[in-house]
Amino acid sequence: MSENSKEPKKDKWRTAGGLFIPAGLFMGIGLGWALGYLVQGLLIGMGAGFLLFGLAMLVARD
């Protein structure tokens, strides 16, 4: 019974985790454009998105 209640929580984390990458890209583009460093902001945002995605998958693993 407790196994059934854990399954939807894992699916929510996996679904939400995939949104961190484009969110990081958009935030990086916006900050980079505002500060005059578009490419650097894009790369930092992408890195942060992948880092958060990895953390979300780590949390959803168990």
Account of the protein in words:
The protein is mostly helical. It has one domain (13-61). The chain has helices at residues 2-17, 20-35, 38-61. Helix 1 (2-17) runs antiparallel to helix 3 (38-61). It is elongated, with a radius of gyration of 15 Å. The model has no long low-confidence stretch (mean pLDDT 83).
Chain-averaged pLDDT: 83
Overall geometry = elongated
Rg calc? 15 Å
- The tally of domains stands at 1
N-C termini distance: 16 Å
Number of strands: 0
- N-to-C SSE string, H for helix and E for strand: HHH
Query: How many alpha or pi helices?
Result: 3
Poorly predicted runs: none
Structural class, please?
mainly alpha
- Note the main sheet: none
Strand and helix map with partners:
Layout (H helix, E strand, L loop, with lengths): L1 H16 L2 H16 L2 H24 L1
Q: How would you briefly describe this protein structure?
A:
The protein has 62 residues and is mostly helical.
Give me some keywords for this one.
62 residues, mainly alpha, 3 helices, elongated
